[in-house]
Amino acid sequence: MNRIEPRSGVALKLAKGQKLTVCDPMGQQVSDLVAYNADDVREVISNGRTFDYEETIQLGWGNRLWSNRSNPMLTIVTDTAQRHDFLLTPCCEETFRHFYPDKPVHRGCFGNLAEALEPYGIEPESIPTAFNIFMNVPVDGKSGLLAVKPPTSKPGDKLELRAEMDLVIGLTACSAYDSNGGSFKPIDYEVS
Amino acid sequence: MNRIEPRSGVALKLAKGQKLTVCDPMGQQVSDLVAYNADDVREVISNGRTFDYEETIQLGWGNRLWSNRSNPMLTIVTDTAQRHDFLLTPCCEETFRHFYPDKPVHRGCFGNLAEALEPYGIEPESIPTAFNIFMNVPVDGKSGLLAVKPPTSKPGDKLELRAEMDLVIGLTACSAYDSNGGSFKPIDYEVS
């Protein structure tokens, strides 16, 4: 397993058919994931297309994550946590100022992803709503109101994704207070 | 009022402070809206940033629609229908093939938006999840399952949005069967 240190991020290539395992080694830690077609990074993971084709906002085992060009990018083949979010964007300087005005501003998952993805020719504006592994965002179906709650993930929980095309992946150990139950922990990952 | 004919779309400029009124003249008709910063079209409307800052997936009177750079783009100042969607992407050839395999394929809101936005230098890949005015997509908060139901909008229902920056707007009369209660009607709009 490779380790992503707290409040940091990486980018990596994932070939079609390879599997990416994302593990929460200590529990209650979110990992933001974004994905791009390695041959044309204008094709990018899309929460809206995924909600269209999977007909749910709560993705888990068996669901596929789709691109803005209506192609499946990743299939969830293992999911021990069963609680993830695909509604909210990576934390960034502006979200720190907005939600934590009394705390130091951090560049967040957005800044970490932007730096990691730059060598692949991916601009900050091309970072979409992320698939937020282990993030716990209950939605009230009647009012639409949402809340960011501590993750329900336990130490060792993991999500395994199979690549359906050659991909560039961005992956973080999330930097925001509320998303991670108030403390910042590492994320482990492995390509197989 | 200007009219968008059934299953078509337009693009227009909206200056900061101007208001865009979108009216459903016959009822049960969806209109997909996308927005770009007129001075730099890499800044684009974002459902994820909007859900972040507004803390709800059900946007209505008083809510703001935010950009991928964390700036408010539009404020909802009138909302007589009180039911809209910001989860799903514009219908396109692939969604017609997927959901309506026995019906003729249409280029959908996606194709209509792509053509209308091209003169502004906006590529098809830059069309994000749209704000789907009058679209009725109930979500089961427990399971996450969603459904596309007929709009609840009545003839004459309207949504009025105030521009918070100079914008390029894409706007359609939606082309998909389920989203519009099975028939395709016009959408009226006015800039003031």
From TrEMBL, chains A, B:
Pfam families in the record: DUF1989 (PF09347)
Record-annotated DUF1989 domain positions: 3-168
Superkingdom assignment: Bacteria
Protein name, entry field: DUF1989 domain-containing protein
